[in-house]
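Hi team,

As requested, here is the filled-out complex form for the zinc ion run. I kept the field names the same as last time so the parser does not choke. Let me know if anything looks off before we queue the next batch.

— J.
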Amino acid sequence: MKSFIAELPKAELHLHIEGTFEPELMFKLAERNGITLPYGDIETLRTAYNFSKLQDFLDIYYQGMDVLRTEQDFFDLTWAYLTKVYKQSVRHVEIFFDPQGHLIRDISFETALNGIYFALKTGKQELGISFEIIICFLRHLDEENAFQTLEMALPHKDKIIGVGLDSSEKNNPPSKFAGVFKKAREEGFRIVAHAGEEGPPEYIYEALDILKVHRIDHGNAAMLDPALIERLVKEQIPLTVCPLSNTRLCVIDDMKNHPLPRMLDAGIMATINSDDPAYFGGYLNENYEAVSEILGNSPALLAQLARNSFDASFLENSRRKLLISEVDNYLRKHLSKET
Ligand code: HPA
Ligand code: ZN
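And here is what came back:
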């Protein structure tokens, strides 16, 4: 199954670019920027990646991103991610970044955006990977701060397709950001939100009804509510599921108990994503591998997940169709070899 997954064309729709910051690059950029990390070496840093909940991770994730200071740093970070996933048959990426995580450190919106954007543009030209950028609001901050951030995004509508919501979910419901997402919709941005990772099904309802999302990021808690499952199926609202993230953050206790097979059985448009691969032990292929067994090592189901990733994307229709037909042809070739 590993080799089938390796060459399966796929898209990544839930990826925090700051979460791709590998310790090796972190130490290199820290040195370049004259920063002393609170860890003696790479190994010591990695041993800190032991999380029992989302907040444990977020504390380390914000500390890690403090090393990112210049446009070149954001370029190098994004370029390292692209060259890695190019080798994983990733054809399209929709990348999140956290402007407020940088603004708070006096790094301008444009410093981060331009570094990320120019790397993605280079990746499109040199590696053929199409892309979109989504900014995320940090939900532990107030709505006014999100409004200020949205204002900064307005001159960059040509580079930014959408607006999302991330960071500490508990006690920060989507409804806290009703006003700023209304404005984002009026400005023409696509809308996504993390919901139902650690929060209850109610937060998924709020994301749908108040923020009016096109996709739910994570969405695991939907499986607790049959009426919500039915609605996600009926409206074909995609979920961007992140298996390795879920086990590393103890959202689920064991991959064997991951709800993905039940989601697919129910008819939910689930996709597989890596979330913060440098922290959670794997990029996109490793996430597909992690769920392969609970899907019965079925090439057809893995191909369905890849098809869903293009279906759920913000790609324009001609490329979407092209990439879906690549998946279909790949599966057909694989199955004909087997018989
Ligand atoms: N959840 C919430 N916020 C985040 C995550 C996540 O998985 N990754 C980066 N920011
Ligand atoms: Zn996430």
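Two things worth flagging: The pocket of hypoxanthine (ligand 1) is lined by residues 16, 19, 54, 61, 166-167, 194, 197, 245, 275-276 (CB under 6 Å). The two ends are 16 Å apart (CA to CA).

Thanks,
J.
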